[in-house]
Amino acid sequence: MAIATTVTVETNIDAIRELLRANPRTTFDEVEEKFGLSRDILPKISREELSVQKKFRHFVPHQLTAEQKQTRLDMCRQNHSMWKNEGQKLIDKIITWDENYVHS
Q1: CA of 10: how far to CAs of 20, 25, 50, 104, in Å?
Q2: Residue-wise DSSP of the chain
Q3: What single-letter DSSP state applies at residue 40?
Q4: Are residues 83 and 57 in the same domain?
Q5: Which InterPro entries has this protein been placed in (predicted)?
């Protein structure tokens, strides 16, 4: 059972950072058990202190580079232009995917 704590200790943050670097698939349950932190503090530590989020069953950096931001902006502009030209027909043609599934 985890010990409830309201203090985020820098040594815990550094240790969690190293744990996630070694194994990005580490779960909150594993971190909670290993460090004795309360479950409600872990999302705050991951998001605010480590700048990572749990996605696709593993932790990934949440910060985007300037190039990634520009690419997203360019794609949004391209999609907006296509929407203006095609409207609902565009939506009917969209197929999306992630690591595990194809959605249409």
Answers
A1: 15, 22, 11, 45
A2: -PPP-----HHHHHHHHHHHHH-TT--HHHHHHHH---GGGHHHIIIIIS-EEEETTEEEE-PPPHHHHHHHHHHHHHHHHHHHHHTHHHHHH--EE-SS-EE-
A3: G
A4: no
A5: RNaseH_sf (IPR036397), Transposase-MT_Hybrid (IPR052709)
Model confidence at 98, pLDDT cuts 50, 70, 90, reads low
Q: Name the residue range of residue 26's domain.
A: 10-61
Q: Is residue 54 a contact partner of residue 46, using CB atoms and an 8 Å limit?
A: yes
Residue 16 has a CB neighbour count (10 Å cut-off) of 23
pLDDT in tens, 45-80: 877 778 776 655 555 566 778 998 899 999 999 989
Q: Are residues 14 and 56 in the same domain?
A: yes
User: Nearest-CA neighbor of 36 among 1, 82, 74?
Assistant: 1
Rounded to two decimals, the pTM is 0.43
